[in-house]
Amino acid sequence: MATSLPPLTALRAFDAAARHMSFAKAAEELNVTPAALSFQIKSLEEHLGAPLFRRLNRAVELTDAGHALAPDAKAAFEMLTNGWRAAQRMQDHQSLTVTAGPAFTAKWLAPRLFQFAHEHPEIELRFSATLRAMDFARDDIDVAIRFGYGPDPGLYSLPLAEEWVTPVMLPEMAERYPTPESLREAVLIIDDSVAFLDPPADWEAWSEAMGIAPLVPTGPRFSQADHALDAVLAGTGVALGRRALVIKDLAEGRLVAPYGKVLSTGARFRFLCPEGAETRLQIEAFKNWMLREIDKTAHIAESFEMLERPIKK
Amino acid sequence: MATSLPPLTALRAFDAAARHMSFAKAAEELNVTPAALSFQIKSLEEHLGAPLFRRLNRAVELTDAGHALAPDAKAAFEMLTNGWRAAQRMQDHQSLTVTAGPAFTAKWLAPRLFQFAHEHPEIELRFSATLRAMDFARDDIDVAIRFGYGPDPGLYSLPLAEEWVTPVMLPEMAERYPTPESLREAVLIIDDSVAFLDPPADWEAWSEAMGIAPLVPTGPRFSQADHALDAVLAGTGVALGRRALVIKDLAEGRLVAPYGKVLSTGARFRFLCPEGAETRLQIEAFKNWMLREIDKTAHIAESFEMLERPIKK
DNA sequence: ACCTTCAGTTAAGTTATACTTAATCGAACA
DNA sequence: TGTTCGATTAAGTATAACTTAACTGAAGGT
């Protein structure tokens, strides 16, 4: 059986026709006349030796052979489009699109952005603050920052600093709650965005690691960490803050972490991009800038003591 | 950014060149002159606005853009080839290639084959007795018979009769082992091909379901069920036989299942083919024939009593 | 029943693409 | 130093792809 491929333009015509289930619409998509498309399909059917469409009154439907071919054709042309877009994006060293969760965007990226823009005025930055699964090719994404455990198969993945949590509050609150025990009097804010962690990194886990009776949070709940931290900044209460999200506020005195003891989450933010793309100029620049920015606050992180997790029975 | 695809023949030329890492070999593969191929690559690079290959002394290597495009191009053209082959195979109603495991091939298909050939002399049958993962398009497989739990995503999947196991032996042995307890004196053959089942369907599980002390098999082990059953037929001992593999020997008196109690495995043989292919003439004929053949021995299977699995603590 | 519209087809002619041949280039290898 | 190998270029040709324009046949409206 001769397995060599038929003319590719005919296959593309078939793909469009099968997707639209209409020759006319397919012709429109490909910017050709219906006549040309009809001819292409006919030629493809001649190559195959069997019809691919059944011509009905004023519609077409796929034959068995057509059904066998259509899904693969669709997927194949989508893949070609994706690859082509990726290749096109490769030569663009001017723009950089980054996607990150809302918390990281608000608490890490946003406060430092002007710094990056200053260092690399030639790079046009775009942001997409969403947590939904990313498709680098489809959504024109260059870099993704994601929090969790990994691994990240098929991607270039650079784990950033390890994330821990520790109670953070306004400086003026610190004297009111001089000890961890005194937090029983405080409004303890709940950040549900870390609820997926296993082992957990919530108030109960932190107090257990501190060796005190469990702190039971009674304050408001937030589904996004940045909202929880905004509540802290507004003086509402005390929250468990993740390293990346609070370190700048700690460095600049807007928040304090008075107990000096932090609980590891095991999870990290990772810098993700398509494999091979990590060498593109603007991506490498962004990556190095992030690492330098993290380094700037490393001394603060190192001043904290990492708590041991008690062994669970 | 104009995302429309470049000329497809150029993309195919690029794919071949990227796979061979040589324009000359790519040209050979596509049955064109090196000049034509060189021109195609050049035109593709013009469309992209950047080189895809770096021309070295007497070799070529991919640029970043080329690296971004090559894997997708390769996968896409493989997919098109697969789809095209599937469409070609659709119109072939004469031949039928079936793959099944060695046990099913030896103990179910082989003894019944002449029957199918008799009913459908026009269909040319081919067999491939292997358990390795099948690729319908790549290996020209039409139908696969597989044992296990499913599901079978993306395939037409028809579960056949439920598989149970029960001790089988030569008729003349049955009087020597009149009760399940008496099997302690017998050579109990081990069939490792069902070791993957969960819950298990081995001697221990069967005796437990029978409510007797565990039977500990001491006989030979076989990795394939047909070899275990051949050992039974040779008078070596007693084995736990799967329904599909022993029912014909039971029906024709070569083996007996004297205790009349069978243990369900929860797993089944399934009739698998690419979605949509189940309506092809020869595939439907084969499917219906299998169902009829199974029906012929259904009365025997129904004469057995299904054991309850004891609830595990 | 009539005309109109719509979706696809067919035929003829044109344009653009893909290909070949043949000559050229440059580096590696003997 | 000449030879060979792999890629390139130029010129010319074949053919694939497309357009225009006329046609078919069924649906739908009045």
From TrEMBL, chains A, B:
Gene Ontology BP terms: DNA-templated transcription
GO molecular function: DNA-binding transcription factor activity; sequence-specific DNA binding
SUPFAM superfamilies: Periplasmic binding protein-like II, Winged helix' DNA-binding domain
Keyword field: DNA-binding, Transcription, Transcription regulation
Domain of life: Bacteria
Domain HTH lysR-type: 6-63
Family: Belongs to the LysR transcriptional regulatory family.
Stated name of the protein: Transcriptional regulator GcvA
